[in-house]
Amino acid sequence: MDAPRSPARLAAALTERWSPRVVAELEDVYVKVAKVEGTLVWHRHDDEDELFYVLKGRLRLELEDRAAVALGEGELFVVPKGVGHLPVAEAECHLLLIERKTTRHTGDTTIAQTRSLADQLRPLP
Amino acid sequence: MDAPRSPARLAAALTERWSPRVVAELEDVYVKVAKVEGTLVWHRHDDEDELFYVLKGRLRLELEDRAAVALGEGELFVVPKGVGHLPVAEAECHLLLIERKTTRHTGDTTIAQTRSLADQLRPLP
Fold first, then answer.
1. CA-based nearest residue to B40, from B101, B115, B124
2. Locate the Cyclic nucleotide-binding domain: which residues (chains A, B) (predicted)?
3. Residue B116 lies in a domain
4. Fewer CB within 10 Å, N side or C side of chain A?
């Protein structure tokens, strides 16, 4: 990355839902943006924490064995490793995500929306 | 972290300048907020990348051996490990930082504003 990037602008420019794209890397971590709407799928990452930060809109995280978390615009939350979660966006929502590079998109579950790392590393608009 | 947190609100509530505070952790990484104004000090982190994300205002990063980078509101930039840098804020600026937990505040340099990790881990308002 040679120049500054705006996650909010890059997320807004995405055309596909639930298809995260890498905007920055540091150490063994990727910073990604995503545009989401609707419900993804229950999944867990056994070995990786996952940070959700709402750039625009609202996100609900249904969590296994604990109360759901409602994230408003500008709020962040870390889903600890091993905790099953279901991201739900009642309306279009733009996210910034921080994850270890090894983190698979939909964790232990594979669905039509599951994106490979190669997909997530495609150049941004 | 049991509840969502708003980095922008937490950064705005800080009273001390150049005194980062941890708002989230995942894996070996801390996410911090800081309120800055003026000039910090030239320093480098030999082994750690450092991500700067401007929540409010503007930040200039003077960089060793390369052109300075001007970050506007909502923009992020990663200073690669080993690259000397000088953060400059002409006016009050609120930042979100992503760093490895081992990263020392002012890197290889110690000044009056240098903050210990214990300082950075104090409970937030």
1. B115
2. 10-77
3. no
4. C
- pLDDT above 90: residue B110: no
Whichever domain contains B26, its CATH number is 2.60.120.10
Enclosing domain of residue A44 = 7-109
The reply to whether residue B50 touches residue A24, judged by beta carbons under 8 angstroms, is no
| pLDDT, tens digit, 9 for 90 and up, residues A56-102 | 999 999 999 899 999 999 999 999 999 999 999 999 999 999 999 98
Structural domains of chain A, count: 1
B120 belongs to a structural domain: no
**Which residue of A2, A5, A27 to mutate against B (max B Cβ within 10 Å)?**
A27
Instruction: Decide: B101 and B30 in contact? Cβ < 8 Å.
Output: yes
In this structure, what DSSP letter does residue B5 have?
B
Q: What percent of chain B is modeled with pLDDT above 90?
A: 71
**Pick from A4, A6, A77: which is nearest to B4 by CB?**
A77
Q: If we measure between CA atoms, which residue out of A40, A15, A20 comes closest to residue A31? A: A20
Residue of A nearest to B80 (CA): A26
Q: Which H or E run includes B24?
A: strand B21-26
Taking the CA of residue B83 and the nearest CA in chain A, the distance in Å comes to: 13
